[in-house]
Amino acid sequence: MDFNSYQQEVLKQGIYPRQGENYVFPSLGLCGEAGEVAEEIKKAIRDDGEMITPSRKQAIFLELGDVLWYLTQLANELDLSLDEIAEINLKKIQAKMDARISGDIPR
Fold first, then answer.
1. Residue 8's pLDDT is what?
2. Coil, strand or helix: which one is 58?
């Protein structure tokens, strides 16, 4: 599935107050779900000697899906394209890498 298709599907699934004019709800959801990813990593450190067990990996997989959903819904609320966000982000990161290689930015 590509970002545009996913973004259109997410538009159909959002059920929250003032959907379409409420960037706060998906912003808070994104923070909450990112926290759940961090919680799984914390448990791996605490309980499994920093090993990512198959069950923990599955839990992280599912939480990352929730992160993606809220990120997409936030982009929808702000009328932003995930395809464009991804494309511009890769260019931004590449420019930073190029600057480091050329010595313009300290490592």
1. 96
2. helix
Query: What does the domain layout of the chain look like in residue ranges?
Result: 18-80
Among positive and negative, which fits the CA dihedral 71, 77, 82, 86?
negative
CB of 73 within 8 A of CB of 26? yes
* CA dihedral over 84, 87, 91, 94, signed as positive or negative: positive
pTM over 0.85: yes
Put residue 22 in one of left, alpha, beta given phi > 0 → left and psi -120 to 50 → alpha: beta
Report the alpha-carbon distance of residue 72 to residue 16 in Å, rounded: 14
Torsion angle of C-alpha atoms 23, 28, 33, 39, degrees rounded to 10? 160
Mean pLDDT of the chain: 95
